[in-house]
Amino acid sequence: MSETTVNGKPVTIKEEDREKRLLTYLREDLDLTGTKDGCGTGACGACTILVDDKPVRSCMKKVDFIEGHRVITIEGMENPDGTLHPLQQSFIDCGAIQCGFCTPGMVLTSHAFLLEHPEPTREEIRKAIKPNLCRCTGYQQIIDAVEKASPFYR
User: Fold this and answer.
1) How far is residue 65's CA from residue 128's CA, in Å, rounded to a whole number?
2) Across the beta sheet with 70-72, what order do the strands follow?
């Protein structure tokens, strides 16, 4: 058995879970269903989580990858009082959620980007979210949302 932190809470990883697909473990064992199973090949970004504040495709990793690390899923983005994180609220305010399937991965990718680039240009935002696919928004609303939320990271 080993330990990790998921959304600020300690999690003990059982030996028999170490070789499970991380996405499956999060969704089925930890009941964190916000992480989506889009393509299963790491190409779409719907399964993106943060490991030590870096985006990771959970469909491509085994559970043992997160041992000893800090994991954040979309459920871990909310404020301590249960309200939405400013970035999540910005996605809603800018109409960047539409069907919502890509939203968790898009929010987490954007969060990681804004942690390192709190004053981005629209072009920098566009490049940062490029690894995540969205079939509904045309990306402009997502770029607007990230730009709108950026002052909260300064």
Assistant:
1) 23
2) 9-13, 2-6, 70-72, 48-51, 54-57
Domain boundary residue among 22, 51, 76?
76
Inter-CA distances, 9 with 5, 12, 14, 70, 152, Å: 5, 10, 16, 9, 24
At 1, the pLDDT band (50, 70, 90 cuts) reads confident
Q: Which residues contact 87 (CB under 8 A, 6 or more apart)?
A: 77, 107, 110, 111, 114, 145, 146, 149, 152
Q: What is the CATH number of the domain that holds 103?
A: 1.10.150.120
The span from the CA of 135 to the CA of 74, in Å, is 20
Q: What is the DSSP letter of 146?
A: H
Tens of pLDDT, residues 108-134 = 999 999 999 999 999 999 999 999 999
CA distance 71 to 150: 22
Are residues 35 and 90 both part of a single domain?
no
Tell me whether residue 41 is in a domain.
yes
Tokens of 92: 């809603």
The answer to whether the CB of 39 falls within 8 A of the CB of 46 is yes
